[in-house]
Amino acid sequence: MRSITTLDLQYAHRFYGFKGEAQYLHGHTGILTIEVEDSVNEGVNMVFPCNEIRKTAWDVLQNFDHALILREDDPLLPAVLEVYEKQGIRHGAPQNTMTGPAFKTELATAYPECRLVVTKETLTVEGMIKIVYDLLKDKLNIAKITFTSGVNAASADFSTRHEIERCPLCGIALQNGICPKCGYRKV
Ligand SMILES: [Zn+2]
Ligand SMILES: [Zn+2]
What does the pLDDT look like over 22-67, one tens digit per residue? Predict the structure, then answer.
């Protein structure tokens, strides 16, 4: 069975070099749906607590929220950085508090200190799904990701790969046989 969670991300981007309106900088509220598949954990009668899926996902994905997402070869990138630098906000600002840990994968690099994500490929809805799966695949048994942004939507199915031992009392993943939330110990 599956547990499903949804979160939204507000971001600005453009399709650099694309022959259409999307070559201009613009913004979206994107809606991301993550489906986690596993057996039903009999102790709590759920696959996985949805708020815990959300927490795990949000930890890294908050770097995309209220962020500017640009492809690595987009000339807007050095131009924006120059402005941020001159303004003194390139390396952080007291108001920039909603930051996740910086990350770097094959597909994307997050610079949370200035709310910027630099991508290898154009950030289409398909591109977003590839990036999100790559960031979360080792943490969650992801069976499907759907991303909707304006009139565009895409989804992808994945085969789940992990044996994740879950707490029979609160449902979250055990770490070395111990529940980090309620202290349950597997005997
Ligand atoms: Zn767009
Ligand atoms: Zn627990």
Answer: 999 999 999 999 999 999 999 999 999 999 999 999 999 999 999 9
Ligand closest to 167 (CA) is 2
Domains with residue ranges and CATH for the chain? 2-157 (3.30.479.10)
Q: Measured in angstroms, how far is the CA atom of residue 132 from the centroid of ligand 1?
A: 17
Q: How far is the CA of 40 from the centre of ligand 1 (A)?
A: 38
**Which DSSP string do the residues of 18-77 spell out, in sequence order?**
-SSGGGS-EEEEEEEEEEEE---BTTTTBSS-HHHHHHHHHHHHGGGTTEEEEETT-THH
pLDDT tens column, 65-84: 999 999 999 999 999 999 99
